[in-house]
Amino acid sequence: MVSTAPVHSTSILGNRMLKVDHAGEQGAICLYRAQRTAARVTAPAMVDHLSDFLIHEKRHRAVFGAALMQRRAPRSRMFWPCAIGGYVLGFLTGLFGARAIAATTLAVEATVLRHLADQRRALSGLDAEAVAIIGSIIEDEQIHHDRFLDRMKLDSWWLRALRSIISASTEAVIWLGMRVG
């Protein structure tokens, strides 16, 4: 007899969330890699920060990847679309220099932090392992957000628009990832 206890359905939800997070980390790796490439010309002072972020994101992807393997869950179908989208977004915003890179980082990381907090609330008491895995990366994501917060002055309409567009796009990718698995 197959059990339909909440623990089973929660594992499915936890798996789905970890799959989305894994794909998102692949997108973040590509984003920061592309921004770092462009920043070598447009914002050399940011290259070291972006290299640090890239190291963190690679570790996050490995953490989520290991969890998926342990749970015998395949990676998300959004893995490669996130990679391509992250690279394109990173390169384009990197071409516009330091303020565009900072606006992009703030938009993506603020959205990701909200998403991770929502995940932890949804899985609290239901999938302690997934909650711990998600919690293990929050500090790094907060550092990424905060490191550029002091550099970001939303004093121009195009930076406010860029940040809004990127936030909405990131939310849409997360939403889609939760639906397509």
Walk me through this protein's architecture.
The structure is a single chain. With 181 residues, the chain is mostly helical. Helix content is 83%, strand content 0%. The protein is built from six helices and no strands. It has helices at 6-42, 47-70, 79-95, 98-123, 128-149, 157-180. Helix 1 packs parallel to helix 3 (79-95), helix 1 runs antiparallel to helix 4 (98-123) and helix 2 packs antiparallel against helix 5. It is globular, with a radius of gyration of 17 Å.
Question: Helicity level, as a percent range?
Answer: over 70%
Question: How many strand units?
Answer: 0
Derived structural class:
mainly alpha
The amount of beta strand, in percent, is under 5%
Rough outline: globular
Q: What's the helix and strand layout?
A:
Blueprint (H helix, E strand, L loop, with lengths): L5 H37 L4 H24 L8 H17 L2 H26 L4 H22 L7 H24 L1
What attributes characterize this protein structure?
181 residues, mainly alpha, 6 helices, globular, disordered N terminus
In summary, what is this structure?
With 181 residues, this protein is an all-alpha fold. Helices cover 83% and strands 0% of the residues.
